[in-house]
Batch of 2 targets.
Target 1
Amino acid sequence: MRTIVAGNWKMNTDASSATALVDALVGKMGGQPGNVEVVIAPPFPFITQAVERAKGSGIIVAAQDCHQAEKGAFTGEVSATMLKSLGVGACIVGHSERRQYFGESDALIGEKVAALLAADIIPIFCCGERKEERESGRHFDVVTEQLKGALGKFTNAQLERIVIAYEPVWAIGTGLTASAQQAQDMHAHIRSLLHTHGASVAGAVPILYGGSCNPSNAEELFSQPDVNGGLIGGASLVAEQFMDLLRIAGKVKH
Ligand code: 13P
């Protein structure tokens, strides 16, 4: 199974600090464990410079969202084919902040996944329950619905090209993380859903954990058998912390 550590910069950095962060990461990439795929998702305006500066480093540059259509009259939007033409290798879709603030539905997110697969970009599909959903014991059902609603129509060959990120909403940016056991239980649940499509799908799709993951809690989280790496917010904005997370993933998954 692949191990992936991905940084979601969200709406942070500016032209100069984004460049500085890419340069700092590229400068530290030498000697990193080769068994970890490294992804960074800067804001749209800084993607071109990130792709240029990360060239040859092994870092995959991702976007944080895309539009579901290939082109057309959608003012302000960015298509998967545009991202592909820049050299973008992956794209986050269905992040809880998109669901919460921009009203994205599972059906819409599924269309975005389809657009990304058609453009040969790896979709990083996010799912996760809200605090009240966990407190009422509905977290497994909520995640099941998100996966079925967005990914239910894809073929096995398409599913095998997707990465899933489990991000409990109550853990995002709050300093609260899921316990290693809570993460493992949900990841195993997601793996069992994938298994209904066959062993090759279950064996191909990495499941990343996201939500206040940082160098002090990553070892325990990444050690869980169904946790295949992390989708990192705040700690991905500090080069040293992000590199520590790569080292930890490389160590526990080697
Ligand atoms: P934090 O690591 O800042 O909690 O964010 C997680 C996240 O939302 C990554 O997509």
Target 2
Amino acid sequence: MKGKVCVFGSFNLDVVAGMTRFPLPGESLIAQHSMMGPGGKGANQATAALRAGARVHYIGKVGNDDFGTFARRHLEKTGFDAITLFTCKEKPTGNALIYVAGNDAENMISVYPGANLTVSAAEVARCQPTVAAADILLLQLENNLSAIQRMIDNARAANTLVILNPAPWQKISDALLAKVDLLTPNSTEAMLLTGVTVTDISSAQRAAEALHRKGARQVIITLGMAGALLSTETQQLHIPLFPAQPQDTTGAGDAFNGALAARLAAGETLPQAALFASAYASVCVEHAGAAHSMPSYADGLARLKAFADLAPQPLAEWV
Ligand code: RIB
């Protein structure tokens, strides 16, 4: 079954430099390779949801410039059910400068959101029928908070399930957290949201508990090499990391979130969808680039089957 996922989020033009190590402040360092291509957490997650088996409507905003034209051409041929791409006359298309370095292909990213931060109330209102028609609305925090809040309110009014990936972190209220059905921070974002330093599964359990107290009913905290913690008011599970040969970790979180939304929209349970998302993200990191590295559903399934012994593990109830 193909569920319908609406993704509201950023489009950025990514400039990526592959390095043997990260440059130091004040240092010029020769890159091993470089590429320029489509990115932005919203567009990446929309691509992941599509490739992981959902019907996807992507909503975003770009500048009235060459990168905006590039975005529209790229998005139109990606295979989405539909795109709603607004254009901003005052601000340029968002861009991101990305370094990838080290044995684990870690990344450092600076984002200039540009047009992504200019989505108006009238533009959100035009998207209301799209949000209402979706099974799931998936959002991040790379747009202006006013638009994110309105989109979430519209989703709730239409009984569309809301998944918020709070990346990159910006301050959000507990009232907003309480409107989200599933919150998916990484360890840094979980720490910024709760004040709990998240370094391992048990500290993630404490952060999840703090998020539940703030009103977030279901939480998945991604923990890098330690996998992920799935926490609801009734269960806590450890979602394992799948083995991978990392080339570029850029977009791994986007792969996880897009695949998670696609599999939930297809009717899978939260633990099943989270396990698939972990397998899917492990295939994503084996390819360079963000949007271009999103695997197919079949690739994610093959990784899942290759490590059939990996399964969600129940954790002691509360710490
Ligand atoms: O999550 C990776 C993405 O973060 C990149 O594509 C970049 O554009 C930033 O939004």
